[in-house]
Design goal:
The structure is a single chain. The protein is mainly alpha-helical. It is 58% helix and 6% strand. The protein has helices at 2-17, 23-28, 50-59, 81-102, 120-134, 155-165, 170-197, 200-211, 225-229, 252-257, 261-282, 289-296, 299-302, 304-324, 329-351, 354-360, 384-392, 394-397, 399-405, 408-426, 437-460, 465-492, 500-512, 528-531, 542-545, 553-564, 568-573, 583-588, 594-598, and strands at 105-107, 110-113, 366-367, 427-428, 495-498, 518-520, 536-537, 578-581, 603-607, 610-614. The chain has a 5-stranded mixed β-sheet with strand order 7-6-8-10-9. It has a 3-stranded antiparallel β-sheet with strand order 1-2-5. α4 (81-102) runs antiparallel to α7 (170-197) and α11 runs parallel beside α14 (304-324). Residues 1-73 have low confidence and may be disordered.
Length: 617
């Protein structure tokens, strides 16, 4: 049975990483993958075999999810390859360093992390481990007892669960798929920009405006040397994340892609999908609808926000097709087949997951004005336009002239971004209003394309090259200085996450506890039973379960009662197999009664200040 689980999860890994291409087809097409077009059109020069060939062809071919042997991927050398690598390599180096210091970084026997991963990574690690040890797809929701739907887009976790099942350690399993996904995100964003703008120079500027762009938040830190130094020492006091002044437009690398795996893997598919949408719609390559459909089939279960963004952009492009192109069968039929295939498969995928969670969950679909700037009483914290000016900065200021400067097809594409903006400004799709930024950043991406084109065209008219360079450098400084400071702060951040005792306890649980065991623990977001051992717990942190839309009142009350006034009936009712007493329990539940358990149940594990009692068996 364990080998069967490995086989199923391996098949699933290929399906996810290839963007929906079935494993058999993917592996059949990998004969030419070693020589075929990294980043969609560039020669990869990678020689791989077997399973590795399948994975690499799925992700390293520009993230398009289409093996290099497929006919629409060019194999000729690209004259713009140097420009591509000039953008991708510096960010890749920074990303590698941040991943090294942020993900299960072992320092003197303890795990350390960085500022952005202190919260969310604990949840992702637990999901990954739980899926690996239980082997259930779709997975159970391990942060609560009782029956709850796993409405979270879990495919971003299963790609790492596969490596755990195959024998990789937790750090390797967590990082390997992320490395490939980052290459896809960076490479395909550049390819999309070049395809839309028709210029490598414009693509480079758009690349940096998006990944390293920021607003005017740095101004708040220029008042004194102490305030400026606080950027590098405080917890979330950066020019892109300073809530005291309503600065919330974060850097996408350090605050979205590195800590939030769903966003990373969603963009890993979305960006090549937008590249194909442009070619399919605007460049009339109608045969690409098949590859586009195959690519995006798993997207709703990877990142639902990315799936919604793609729908809105495709709607704008579909309207363009109806208005600007002949309404013939040859033109319209590919759109119909694409909508039918994706509509049917997506409906099946989301029926018992995303849709069900939206209906069952709390505070999911609701009206709300102006993203995080809006308040519950309908008022705004800042003036609507000033909020975006100070948060997004130069790109936002130039959006209107950039729109009128753009070519008609570029405006139609940006129309999809405007649809995203309008929807995200009035409808919230999850309990946390802030998470609508996962939609807003796609609008921003398309805006960066237009602004980059505008700036390059403006400065191309300046005859004196030194003045042209100076003007561009000044614009880049204004548009990116805040993000440079933020990335610097992230690189310096270092926080203790789990002690050596926590690691040892998790290892013991992993080796000796049943895979479906339920533990009674505190609701700390760093609970090692869940995060490191992947075992189900009665009640997880509210910072996770509340923002997943879960009603966890019963589990929370049961946790409190079973620690303070325990009884055997309640333990049996919730199916508790083990009870943990550690520093988190005693600090959060002052009247925790360990003596009751010690008098009735055997001490199953003890290490430092942690003790676990075995209830059943």
């Amino acid at each position: 049975m364990r080998w069967l689980r490995k086989e199923v999860l391996c098949e699933h890994l290929l399906f996810c990483l290839s963007g929906g291409v079935p494993a058999g087809r993917l592996l059949h097409c990998t004969q030419g993958a070693a020589a075929g077009g990294a980043f969609g059109q560039h020669s990869a020069g990678v020689r791989v075999r077997g399973l590795t060939a399948g994975i690499c062809s799925g992700l390293f071919c520009g993230g398009t999810g289409v093996p290099a042997a497929c006919p629409f991927v060019a194999r000729v050398p690209d004259p713009d390859a140097a420009a591509l690598w000039a953008c991708v390599l510096p960010l890749a180096v920074v990303t590698l360093y941040l991943l090294h210091t942020h993900v299960l970084h072992l320092v003197d026997g303890s795990y350390h992390t960085g500022q952005s991963c202190y919260g969310d990574m604990a949840m992702h690690l637990g999901f990954i481990k739980n899926i690996a040890v239980t082997g259930k797809l779709p997975p159970v929701y391990p942060l609560l007892g009782g029956e709850h739907r796993f409405g979270y887009p879990f495919l971003c976790e299963t790609v790492s669960s596969v490596f755990l099942v195959l024998g990789a350690d937790a750090r390797t399993a967590y990082l390997l798929p992320m490395l490939a996904a980052f290459i896809s995100v960076y490479g395909m964003m550049w390819q999309l920009a070049r395809q839309v703008l028709g210029s490598a120079g414009k693509a480079c500027l758009a690349f940096w405006l998006f990944f390293m762009g920021s607003g005017f938040g740095f101004v708040y830190f220029l008042g004194s040397a102490e305030a400026f130094a606080g950027i590098f020492t405080g917890f979330y006091t950066t020019p892109t994340n300073y809530t005291a002044e309503n600065i919330v437009w974060v850097n996408p690398i350090v605050d979205l892609l590195i800590p939030q795996r769903a966003t990373l893997f969603g963009w890993c598919v979305l960006f090549p999908a937008l590249y194909l949408v442009w070619r399919f719609c605007m460049e009339k390559e109608t045969r690409l609808w098949r590859y586009l459909a195959l690519l995006v089939l798993p997207l709703p279960l990877m990142h639902t926000h990315s799936a919604l963004a793609l729908v809105l952009i495709c709607l704008a492009c579909g309207v363009y097709t109806l208005v600007c192109r002949p309404r013939t069968k040859a033109v319209l039929a590919p759109w119909g087949w694409f909508a039918l295939v994706c509509g049917v498969v997506w409906l099946v995928e989301m029926w018992n997951t995303v849709f069900a969670q939206s209906l069952d969950g709390q505070h999911m679909l609701r009206l709300h004005l102006n993203w995080i700037n809006g308040q519950d009483d309908g008022t705004l914290k800042d003036n609507y336009f000033w909020f975006y000016i100070k948060n997004i900065g130069l790109v936002y200021l130039l959006l209107i002239p950039a729109f009128f400067h753009a070519k008609p097809k570029q405006r139609w594409l940006y129309g999809g971004g405007l649809a995203i903006l309008v929807l995200a400004e009035f409808v919230v799709f999850q309990p946390n209003n802030y998470d609508n930024n996962k939609l807003l950043y796609i609008w921003h991406l398309l805006g960066c394309l237009l602004v980059a084109s505008l700036l390059m065209d403006w400065f191309s008219k300046v005859r004196a090259i030194p003045w042209r360079a100076l003007g561009l450098c000044l614009c880049c400084f204004i548009a990116m200085f805040g993000s440079v400071l933020t990335v610097g702060r992230e690189a310096l951040s270092d926080y203790w996450q789990w002690s050596a005792d926590d690691i040892a306890m998790a290892d013991y649980i992993d080796d000796n506890a049943e895979t479906d065991a339920v533990f009674l623990t505190s609701d700390s977001h760093l609970c090692p039973v869940f995060s490191l051992a992947g075992r189900r717990i009665l009640c997880g942190s509210g910072s996770f379960v509340y923002y997943h839309g879960m009603n966890y009142t019963a589990e929370y009350n049961a946790m409190q009662q079973l620690y303070e006034n325990p009884d055997e009936v309640s333990l049996a009712q919730w199916g508790i197999d083990y009870v943990l007493f550690d520093s988190y329990v005693f600090s959060n539940i002052q009247n925790a009664d360990e003596s009751w358990y010690a008098a009735r149940y055997p001490l199953w594990y003890e290490n430092g200040g942690s003790r676990i009692y075995k209830i059943n068996g």
